[in-house]
From TrEMBL:
<dbReference type="InterPro" id="IPR032710">
    <property type="entry name" value="NTF2-like_dom_sf"/>
</dbReference>
<dbReference type="Pfam" id="PF13577">
    <property type="entry name" value="SnoaL_4"/>
</dbReference>
<feature type="domain" description="SnoaL-like">
    <location>
        <begin position="32"/>
        <end position="162"/>
    </location>
</feature>
<keyword id="KW-0732">Signal</keyword>
<feature type="signal peptide">
    <location>
        <begin position="1"/>
        <end position="24"/>
    </location>
</feature>
<protein>
    <recommendedName>
        <fullName>SnoaL-like domain-containing protein</fullName>
    </recommendedName>
</protein>
<dbReference type="InterPro" id="IPR037401">
    <property type="entry name" value="SnoaL-like"/>
</dbReference>
């Protein structure tokens, strides 16, 4: 049984939620919500591009001089992967790499901080990799993404993406071509 104080607080919170769809104290200005969504969309464009081997979609997620740094995650699972620099360099390295796999990336726990025309994004991304030639084997990773973004026109793009690994499961040879 709830105390009367908790009941009143719950009723107030429920009323605010039913009226607005979110608790009244969490309602943000429209432009802030739009920025948070657009910042997260840059990561979604990247992961969806990886899952669909779509170089144009991957490119749309990065600034012209963007950096993709997989080295912390790679080192934790016993691999070496170079830091990729420049939009064209990132796409040129990742599309052939990704095309060897059937992948699925799931993005969660996104935290966004927007400061004018720059932003940071922290997210967890689970990535499942199955070789196209043998989908009975897999390698799954749960990675932390730390991303710096800049506003370019009406969209956000990643200027630096650093990926670190939390855990991995499966056959590492899947990732190394073995």
């Amino acid at each position: 049984m709830l105390s009367s104080t908790k009941s009143v607080a719950l009723a107030t919170l429920t009323s605010a939620f039913l009226t607005t769809g979110t608790p009244a104290e969490d309602v943000a200005p429209t432009s802030e919500v739009a920025d948070h969504h657009a910042v997260t969309d840059a990561l979604i464009r990247f992961t969806n591009g990886m899952d669909t081997d779509d170089g144009a979609l991957i490119a749309s997620a990065f600034s012209e001089n963007g950096i993709a740094d997989f080295t912390p995650a790679a080192a934790k699972v016993g691999m070496q992967f170079p830091v990729l620099e420049g939009r064209d360099g990132i796409v040129g390295a990742l599309v052939p790499f990704a095309s060897a796999f059937t992948t699925s990336h799931s993005v969660t726990n996104a935290r966004v901080d927007v400061q004018g025309d720059s932003a940071t994004l922290y997210a967890l991304v689970e990535a499942q990799h199955l070789p196209v030639v043998d989908n009975t084997r897999h390698f799954m990773m749960m990675n932390q993404y730390q991303i710096d973004l800049v506003r370019e026109g009406d969209q956000w793009v990643m200027s630096r993406m650093t990926i670190d690994n939390l855990w991995a499961n499966g056959d590492l040879a899947v990732m190394t071509g073995g």
